């Protein structure tokens, strides 16, 4: 994944048995592949396979995916990147989608967001260790350490939520897990940008690419804000909060 991306990586994953893994051991395949996509900064249209398989359809194709604001997009398996959502991603708007199951797709994108968040944290941490100010490493300053610590707590919490949602899969659990992962990624983007300062805005530094990726992925299959609102409506309708995990 560190040397390939897009259509080339998609073909490589299929040759390695990605679709078979998705059928036989999805609880291993989905966290592994999508977390690595985030950590390496690569991309591949494999979220299509997760949604298609959840609907009982063959993988290897595409399916309209819900996006924030009641819009729909297609993550193409080939073709030129679109300038609509991230200029390096082949995501294209479409008129409407269908009622395919969203839960497994949200879980997959959640793991992608966790991987992206860890990549941003790693870049900020290394910068804090390398950068010196007033004769001391930036990492020694309390304000910087607090930002990095808050980012790590958000990421660990999101990962725990994703693991918990997978133990007893349901739409509400997956929605909350995706919301937690999206919020963690936004927290990581904000804090890591502050730690890196001006260099984090430059095209030469890798942080800006991860931030743009996090913003796009947060909106895919429902943003953290949208999903939190939907969960609240669901709980109000039911009149009680179900147990999401056995403690």
Automatic annotation (TrEMBL):
InterPro entries: Acyl-CoA_dehydrogenase, AcylCo_DH-like_C, AcylCo_DH/oxidase_C. Signal peptide: none annotated. The keyword Phosphoprotein does not apply. Keywords: FAD, Flavoprotein, Oxidoreductase. Residues 101-224 form the Acyl-CoA dehydrogenase/oxidase C-terminal domain. Pfam families: Acyl-CoA_dh_1. This is Acyl-CoA dehydrogenase family protein. It comes from Mycobacterium paraterrae.
């Amino acid at each position: 994944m560190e040397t390939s991306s897009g259509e080339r990586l998609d073909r490589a994953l299929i040759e390695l048995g990605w679709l078979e893994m998705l059928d036989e051991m999805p609880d291993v395949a989905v966290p592994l592949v999508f977390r690595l996509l985030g950590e390496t900064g690569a991309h591949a249209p494999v979220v299509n396979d997760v949604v298609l398989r959840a609907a009982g359809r063959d993988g290897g194709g595409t399916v309209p995916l819900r996006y924030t604001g009641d819009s729909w997009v297609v993550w193409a398996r080939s073709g030129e990147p679109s300038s609509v959502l991230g200029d390096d991603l082949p995501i294209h708007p479409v008129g409407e989608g269908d009622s395919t199951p969203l839960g497994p797709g949200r879980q997959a994108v959640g793991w992608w967001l966790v991987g992206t968040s860890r990549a941003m944290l790693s870049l900020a941490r290394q910068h804090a260790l390398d950068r010196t100010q007033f004769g001391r490493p930036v990492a020694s300053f309390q304000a910087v350490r607090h930002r990095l610590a808050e980012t790590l707590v958000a990421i660990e919490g999101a990962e725990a939520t994703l693991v918990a949602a997978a133990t007893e899969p349901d739409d509400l659990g997956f929605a909350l897990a995706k919301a937690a992962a999206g919020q963690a990624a936004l927290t990581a983007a904000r804090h890591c940008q502050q730690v890196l300062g001006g260099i984090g805005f430059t095209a030469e530094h890798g942080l800006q690419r991860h931030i743009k990726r996090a913003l796009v992925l947060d909106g895919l299959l429902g943003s953290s804000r949208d999903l939190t609102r939907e969960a609240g409506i669901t709980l109000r309708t039911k009149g009680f909060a179900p147990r999401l995990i056995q403690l």
